[in-house]
Write a structure and sequence with these properties.
elongated, mainly alpha
Length: 164
């Protein structure tokens, strides 16, 4: 992809911040709002317009592919509907060319998240992040947006800086 103009770079960075916000809300509440997903899709349209829509086709394939993988996981009761919906704009911003990077980082982020849950199980914390991780571990309802965004944000930044 060609380097972005200032508007495209700003839209991309706002999207990264938006994804981080969604992950933080999911961590606290186990919910992903439809309005947040729609806002991220809108930011993608602005970002893609700044690049002349040159990568629209491959980006739609990436978003659709991640969405379909999430949908299969939802049917198998392994993932919540909000996480599935989030995969579409995440895939749009990651793009088809960087999906392999995302897959590798998602594996790393998932292992780190599971390790954090294991550590939290031994914690005596009654407040803060460790206490929340402990509660997540006990309920077995995982905020998948956290590892998804931990893996996706650096890949999106790579794309914004044209490292892909």
């Amino acid at each position: 992809m060609a380097p972005l103009d200032a508007a495209g770079l700003i839209a991309g960075l706002v999207a990264v911040a938006g994804f981080c916000h969604v992950a933080q809300v999911d961590f606290r509440t186990l919910k992903i709002r439809n309005a947040s997903v729609l806002a991220l899709c809108g930011l993608y349209v602005l970002w893609a317009a700044a690049g002349g829509f040159r990568t629209l086709g491959p980006d739609l394939i990436a978003g659709g592919l991640l969405f379909l993988i999430g949908l299969v996981m939802w049917f198998a009761r392994m993932m919540g509907a909000g996480d599935v919906k989030l995969y579409f704009p995440l895939g749009l911003f990651i793009g088809f060319e960087l999906l392999a990077w995302y897959a590798v980082l998602l594996l790393v982020a998932s292992v780190l998240f599971v390790a954090a849950l294991a550590l939290a199980g031994r914690s005596k914390a009654t407040s803060g992040i460790m206490a929340r991780l402990k509660a997540i571990r006990e309920t077995r309802k995982l905020p998948y947006a956290v590892p998804m965004v931990m893996a996706g944000a650096p890949v999106i930044v790579m794309r914004l800086l044209d490292f892909g």
